[in-house]
Automatic annotation (TrEMBL):
The organism of origin for this protein: Paenirhodobacter ferrireducens
Record localization: Cell inner membrane
One matching Pfam family: PTS_IIB
Superkingdom, natural source: Bacteria
Classification lineage: Bacteria, Pseudomonadati, Pseudomonadota, Alphaproteobacteria, Rhodobacterales
Broad EC category: transferase
Membrane-spanning parts: 247-271, 291-308, 320-344, 364-382, 403-424, 503-523, 544-565
Domain annotation PTS EIIC type-2: ranges: 237-575
Catalytic activity line of the entry: D-fructose(out) + N(pros)-phospho-L-histidyl-[protein] = D-fructose 1-phosphate(in) + L-histidyl-[protein]
UniProt-listed SUPFAM superfamilies: PTS system IIB component-like
Name assigned to this protein: protein-N(pi)-phosphohistidine--D-fructose phosphotransferase
GO cellular component terms listed in the entry, alphabetical order: plasma membrane
E.C. number(s) listed in UniProt: 2.7.1.202
Length: 581
C-alpha cells in the first residue's frame, strides 16, 4: 500500500502548519499507515516531496493556503483547512481514503454554489439550472443559492457551507465571499455554467483555491487563486461596470416611472413652483430629485465596491456625487468608480499596519484617503474634460436624425441579439441605461425594443412553421413569448444554442431593424426595463406607435429569416436537407 502524501501550506501560520504536520503523522500511525508531508513555511519548504513519491501517489491531501500544483495533475486531490486537520486529523485522512474508491472525479462531492447576474433575471436561474444538471451528471451533490432581482432565494445555511467540499460562484457581478472563508472557492461568469455545467464543476474541482480567513474583506483583485474570474483585464473591467449598473437599475426604474406618472398627472411643467404641493409635483421631486440624483453615486459606488469591496463604497459614491455636481454625469461616475476602486485597492496593499491597528484601515484610513484622492482627481483633473465630453455626446445624440440615428439604432439593436444576455448585449444595455441619466432616452428605446424581438420571433416561428422545430423547442416557444414581452432576451438562448449559425444571424437582422426604426422615428423610453408592461404608463414611452411599429417590424424580419434558413425536420426530429418552402 502506498504512503499517504500530503502538502501543507502555512506561509502565514507557520506554527499551525507544524502542529498540523504532527497531527497528521500521529493520525496516520494510528491507522497503520506511513505518511510523507511537505510543509510550506515563511522560511521555505520543509521535507519536499521527491519525484518518485509524487509519481507513486494515487491521491494527495492539500492543506491550507495552496494554489493549484501541476505536480498533482491527474491525481485525486482532497483539500482541507488547517483548522480541520488540527480538530480532526483522523477524519480528514478518512475522507482522503474514501476518495480513492470514488467512481469518478467529483462523485460524492458536496458543492454549494451562488449564481447572479447584473439584472438578476434570466442568466441567474439558467446558470443555477446548468450547475444542477452538471452536478447530477458527475454524481456530485449541489445546493445553489440564486441572487436574483428580488434578493437571495434558496439561501445557503451555515451548516451546508460548513459541510461543503467546494464553493462555485457563477456570477457576472460582485458576490460577497465572507461566508466561505477557509473553503475552496472557484469563481466564473454565468455563461460557462449555462453552456456546460459539468465542465465548469470539473474545472472548479481542479483549480479552486482556499479562501483565507481575511479575504472576505480583501479586494477582489487581491484574492489570488480563489477568484480566477476576477483577474484584471477586459473581463474584470466589464464585471466591475456591470456590478455598478446592476445596483443603479432600481433607481433608474423607480425614478423614471415616477417622473412619467408625475407628467401624466400635472402636465409637462409639473415641476414648476405653481404646482408645488400637488401629487404630481411631489412624485416628480421623489423621482427626479430623489431616485435620479442617486443614480450616478450608486453606479460609481458599486463599481468601486466590485473592485475594492466595502472600503471602496464611500470613495466611489463620493466621486459619483461630485460627478453629478460638476456636470460630468454618468461618464464621470464611471471614471470616479474605477478611480476610487483601484485607489483603495492600491492603498490596501501598500499600507501595512500592526495587527492591533488593522481595524483602523477599513473605517478610517482607506475611506479618508480614498475619498480625498478620488475627490481631488475629480475636481482638478477628470471633472472638467469629462463634463465637456458628456455635453458634446449629449448634443450629438439629441441632434441625430434620419440615417445617422438609424445606423446607431441598428448597431445597438444588433448587439442585443449577438449573445443575448452576454457581454455584448449587456454593453448595449448599459449604454442605453446610463444615457437616461443625461436625459437622452432614444437609445434606451432602441435597446429594449431590439431586445424583445428575438424571443418573440422564435415563439411565433414555432407556431407558424412548427415542422422546423423539435417538440422541445415548440414547447419552449410558449415561454419565449412571455419572456419576449417582458424584455428577457435570454428566452432565445435555447434555440440559439441548438442551431446558432442559422438562428443568431436571423435574430440579429430583426433586432437591428427594430433598433433602427426606433431611433429613426425618435422613440423615447424613460425606464430601462419592463418590456410591454411599462408601455401603458403615461409618458414612459415617447412615440408609442413608433415603438410598436419597430417591435412588429423587427419581429417580422426575424420570423421571415428563420422561415428561410431553418430546415424542415424529419418525423423523428432529426434535421434533413433544406427543402424549398
Amino acid at each position: 500500500m502506498s504512503d499517504i502524501v500530503a502538502v501543507i501550506g502555512a506561509e502565514t501560520l507557520a506554527t499551525h502548519g507544524m502542529l498540523a504536520r504532527e497531527a497528521l503523522k500521529k493520525a496516520a500511525a494510528g491507522l497503520g499507515r506511513a505518511i510523507k508531508v511537505e510543509l510550506h513555511m515563511p522560511e521555505g519548504v520543509s521535507d519536499p516531496l521527491d519525484a518518485a513519491t509524487v509519481a507513486g501517489a494515487a491521491k494527495v491531501l492539500l492543506v491550507g493556503e495552496l494554489a493549484a500544483d501541476p505536480r498533482f495533475e491527474g491525481k485525486q486531490v482532497l483539500r482541507a483547512t488547517l483548522q480541520e486537520v488540527l480538530d480532526a486529523p483522523a477524519a480528514v485522512l478518512g475522507r482522503l481514503e474514501g476518495a480513492a474508491s470514488a467512481p469518478g472525479v467529483g462523485a460524492g462531492l458536496k458543492i454549494v454554489a451562488i449564481t447572479s447576474c447584473p439584472t438578476g433575471i434570466a442568466h441567474t436561474f439558467m446558470a443555477a439550472e446548468g450547475l444542477q444538471q452538471g452536478a447530477k451528471e458527475i454524481g456530485a451533490e449541489i445546493r445553489v443559492e440564486t441572487q436574483g432581482s428580488v434578493g437571495s432565494e434558496d439561501a445557503l445555511t451555515a451548516a451546508e457551507i460548513a459541510a461543503a467540499d467546494l464553493v462555485v460562484i457563477a456570477a457576472d457581478r460582485q458576490v460577497e465571499l465572507g461566508r466561505f472563508a477557509g473553503k475552496r472557492v472557484f469563481q466564473s461568469q454565468t455563461k460557462p455554467a449555462i453552456n456546460d455545467g459539468a465542465g465548469l464543476i470539473r474545472r472548479a474541482i481542479a483549480e479552486a483555491a482556499v479562501l483565507s480567513g481575511g479575504q472576505e474583506d480583501t479586494p477582489a483583485e487581491a484574492q489570488g487563486g480563489a477568484a480566477p474570474a476576477k483577474a484584471g483585464g477586459a473581463a474584470g473591467v466589464y464585471k466591475h461596470l456591470m456590478t455598478g449598473v446592476s445596483f443603479m437599475l432600481p433607481f433608474v426604474v423607480a425614478g423614471g416611472i415616477l417622473i412619467a406618472i408625475a407628467f401624466a398627472l400635472g402636465g409637462i411643467y409639473v415641476y414648476d413652483d405653481a404646482h408645488q404641493g400637488t401629487l404630481g409635483w411631489t412624485l416628480f421631486q421623489i423621482g427626479a430629485k430623489g431616485a435620479f440624483t442617486l443614480m450616478v453615486p450608486a453606479l460609481a459606488g458599486y463599481i468601486a465596491f466590485s473592485i475594492a469591496d466595502r472600503p471602496g463604497i464611500a470613495p466611489g459614491m463620493t466621486g459619483g456625487v461630485i460627478a453629478g455636481t460638476i456636470g460630468a454625469g454618468f461618464i464621470g461616475g464611471i471614471l470616479a468608480g474605477f478611480i476610487a476602486g483601484y485607489a483603495v485597492l492600491w492603498l490596501n496593499r501598500a499600507i501595512k499596519l500592526p495587527k492591533t491597528l488593522q481595524g483602523l484601515k477599513p473605517v478610517l484610513i482607506l475611506p479618508l484617503l480614498g475619498v480625498s484622492i478620488t475627490g481631488l482627481l475629480m475636481f482638478y483633473v477628470i471633472g472638467k474634460p469629462t463634463a465637456e465630453l458628456l455635453a458634446a455626446l449629449t448634443t450629438w445624440l439629441q441632434g441625430m436624425q434620419g440615417a445617422q440615428a438609424a445606423v446607431l439604432g441598428a448597431v445597438l439593436g444588433g448587439m442585443m441579439a449577438v449573445d443575448m444576455g452576454g457581454p455584448i448585449n449587456k454593453a448595449a444595455y448599459a449604454f442605453g441605461t446610463t444615457l437616461i441619466a443625461a436625459n437622452v432616452t432614444e437609445p434606451m428605446a432602441a435597446v429594449m425594443c431590439a431586445g424583445m424581438t428575438p424571443p418573440l420571433a422564435l415563439s411565433i416561428a414555432t407556431k407558424l412553421f412548427a415542422n422546423r422545430f423539435t417538440p422541445e423547442e415548440r414547447e419552449a416557444g410558449n415561454a419565449a413569448f412571455v419572456l419576449g414581452l417582458s424584455f428577457v432576451t435570454e428566452g432565445a438562448i435555447p434555440f440559439a444554442a441548438r442551431d446558432p449559425f442559422r438562428v443568431i444571424p436571423s435574430l440579429i437582422a430583426g433586432s437591428a431593424v427594430a433598433g433602427a426604426i426606433c431611433m429613426a422615428m425618435g422613440v423615447q423610453l424613460k425606464v430601462p426595463h419592463g418590456g410591454i408592461f411599462v408601455l401603458p404608463i403615461p409618458n414612459a414611452v415617447g412615440n408609442l406607435p413608433g415603438f410598436v411599429i419597430a417591435m412588429l417590424a423587427g419581429t417580422a424580419v426575424s420570423v421571415i429569416a428563420l422561415r428561410i434558413v431553418k430546415p424542415r425536420l424529419a418525423a423523428a426530429g432529426a434535421p434533413t436537407q433544406l427543402k424549398a418552402a
